[in-house]
Specification:
By secondary structure, the protein is α/β, with parallel strands linked by helices. It has one domain: Rossmann fold. It contains six helices and nine strands, in the order αββββαβββαβαααβ. A hairpin with a 5-residue loop joins β3 and β4. α4 crosses α5. The two termini are about 25 Å apart.
Length: about 150
Amino acid sequence: MDQLLDAGGVQLVHFNGHGDWDNAADLAALRLENGETIKAMGFAGRNLGLVSHPVLYLNACSVGRVATTVGRPGGFAAICLDGNWSGVIAPYWSVYDPSAMRFCLELYGNLKLGYSVGEALQQIRSDHPDDFTAQSYSYFGDPWARLLFQ
């Protein structure tokens, strides 16, 4: 993870796994495969954001939440936007894994069709108005941003 965050040349970072919310928002964490975690603070001031300005897609429960930390916004979205990431896509609350997978596939499908991030999310929410997982995702960043796929 450190190698990724200190690298460059990436347009999109996708994390799929478990997340843990903490009321001290900067201590919210992503659970890594090896049993370790990376806290939101671990994204602060990293080369990847400062140089490449990617979008961060966190497909992990509750890590889209933001809370005041020492008089400023805290959490993954706040830290990444302060660190020059282009944006963060993440859910506000717990998500249902099969719905999260469908959401992911539809999101990438819409983005590959040329939708902006905001349009892609809006379309998915419109298509699944009763799906609490689809409704949980938000985008922190310019809603008109578009990703280029090759």
